[in-house]
Amino acid sequence: MPLKKKGKKKPKSAKRKEDKADAIPAIDGDPGTLIADGTTDLGKEGKKKKGKKKKVKMSKSEKVLEKLEKSAEKLKAQKDFYHDFIQEMDSWLVRNAEQVVKMFEEFDEDGESIITYDDFKSGMYDMGLTLNDTQVHLLAKLLDRDNSGEIDYTEISKGLQYAKELEEMDREQEEAEKILIVMPKKSEKCPHGCKMGIDQPYRNKNPKYIWLELRLVTFDRELKNHPAHLEVMVQSDATIYSILQLINQETGIHSTKLSVFSDETRNREAVLVAESTLQELGYEGDSYDDPQEVTLYYDYKVEFTECPILLCDHYLRDMLDD
Predict the structure, then answer these.
(1) What is 63-173's CATH number, 3.30.460, 3.40.109, 1.10.238, 2.40.50?
(2) Which pTM was predicted?
(3) Where is this region: Disordered (predicted)?
(4) Using CA atoms in the order 101, 106, 107, 113, what is the torsion angle rounded to 10 degrees?
């Protein structure tokens, strides 16, 4: 019987450590499982699972304020309402500024001329201002120019002048897309030798506006409300040529004998040159809310370019001679 080689026996504790070390690669535990070497098994993706962040609960007053902010923004998005609201509130504040300031001075114990939105709203209701909660909150925001949550009541005498200026700039920017395209005064010459200029239309950064009434001379006296009489808002730097384009578009008149006149006489002196702007003709214009009112006249001669009978009148003449 062969003899077995004798060797030293390993301690039981060492044997256990080896068994555990050998078993490490076979571990297929869940992500986050603590393994023998003291590290954490991160799973297949190699990343720890992140817990969901808990939502911060809003207080009742914060919810009310958030609701008012959203409602005020919706009112501000209604362009016509917002425009009328600013005009009315500006007039009311300027008219009642002395009483309003005196009332808030009684609230202002520190004498800093600063009040909170809540104090302002309470004061407006005490003054008998008939606005709902959303409207009076919008008014407070308009008076808070730096969005600090506080109002300097000594500035109330100025009304909503700052808000009016911002609103007018926004309206002018929007209306600029609807105003007649103005041809530039200077442009590059056509490389092919034609007389047309090549350039992109431009927009005046500080436009003046004209409420232009265009009356068809033929029906000016007989029919005051003839459908060919037009009214349109234009910029003072609009050219007569662009106005002719507008007449063509609105009336369907495509005569090359279409002209615009300064008065109803239709004589040569009254004809307005197509390349001239309204401003060059003496119509300076004014602000969008208070445009200059101008009345011009137009007329045209009928041209027969697609009638075969009228174009062949020499055949009719021959028939008459026979």
Answers:
(1) 1.10.238
(2) 0.41
(3) 1-60
(4) 50
